[in-house]
Design goal:
The chain has seven helices and five strands, in the order αααβββαβαβαα. A hairpin with a 5-residue loop joins β2 and β3. The model has no long low-confidence stretch (mean pLDDT about 90).
């Protein structure tokens, strides 16, 4: 197998991760068995079909967290068609701002969001050893119920709610979920896997992204 074909193979294996990202993984020896990567002369057709998007808005003036769990972004994605083999129609993502680590939970109904957030809150506080200070979400009903607001108030979690019809204000979560779904579509198309397996592909994409380089985190 020539170098270009080998690079394409690893590009497919790692969820169609960018070649810059693959080169970083290879140069820092972060993946066992990953060879030196050479970008092909022709663009990946699956990437072209699944990752097209508009230019992002300016990020000037956007602050960053300076310690873990200072800010967590949350976003509910769905309903996703088709319904998975386990009857899941949605997934909710929680993204830690400083490290960009992502936790995913799959749902049958939007109403499950609150109970899953409580599970996430208990898990991440034990895992990190800190408490969530601020939670940024849109104004969807799943995030604005009385029980959700009361729980956050009792836990001392500050709420940041975006302006209606302005998803750019929750840009970290929007971009992360776009990246995940681009990877999911690309992998399902590339390997001809039935779409009902999207939760398995989504979980694998989050696993890859949590271990891959990102320009949002220095070095």
């Amino acid at each position: 197998m020539n170098t270009e074909s080998n690079s394409q193979l690893w590009h497919n294996r790692l969820g169609h991760l960018s070649y810059d990202g693959l080169s970083t993984l290879a140069s820092k020896q972060m993946v066992i068995g990953l060879p030196q990567i050479t970008a092909p002369q022709e663009a990946c057709t699956q990437c072209l079909g699944a990752k097209q998007h508009r230019h992002s808005m300016s990020r000037e003036g956007v602050g960053r967290a300076f310690k873990k769990l200072q800010l967590v972004h949350a976003y509910l994605c769905g309903p996703i068609n088709p319904t998975s083999s386990s009857n899941k129609r949605y997934f909710v993502s929680f993204i830690e701002d400083l490290t960009r680590k992502t936790w995913l939970y799959f749902l049958n109904q939007k109403s499950e969001t609150f109970s899953l957030f409580k599970n996430f809150n208990a898990l991440v506080e034990k895992e990190v050893g800190e408490s969530i200070i601020c939670l940024r979400t849109d104004r969807g009903g799943e995030f604005c119920s009385k029980e959700f607001e009361e729980f956050c108030r009792n836990q001392g979690i500050k709420r940041q709610l975006t302006t209606a019809y302005t998803p750019q204000q929750n840009g970290v979560a929007e971009r992360k979920n776009r990246t995940i779904m681009n990877m999911v579509r690309t992998m399902l198309i590339g390997r001809k896997v039935p779409k009902i397996f999207w939760p398995e592909a989504t979980k694998w994409c989050a696993h890859i992204l949590n271990r891959s380089p990102t320009s949002a985190v220095q070095d």
